[in-house]
Predict the 3D structure of the following.
Amino acid sequence: MYLYFGRMKIGPLVGYLWLLGRRLYLKLGWRPRDTVYLGSVDDLLGVAVRVRRLVPRPLPVRQLVAALVDALKKAYYVASRCRDSPRWKIRAWEAAMAIEYAASALAMYWPSAAKKILDDG
């Protein structure tokens, strides 16, 4: 079972972000072929570049990373407060750790965005 992260809206691109293991997927429609592999949670800048390729007009990478940060913040909130299910392929604490690791990797490039992910307020 996938762990649902949240709805992403970046300009004209609207989709749902999912996590399986450490791999991020974006579901753009209801068909199976509408699922796009974005990359690993460990490499958020690479994910932002892949999302940028899906958007019809050029958007800055910072705006894409900001949208991913918002989705990851929601996911971190859910992962840190929910109980595990035996059907999940990833445990909630593993998701929280993956998001914390992604935030620490992002802190090297954009410290304020990394703080937003782990901020409780």
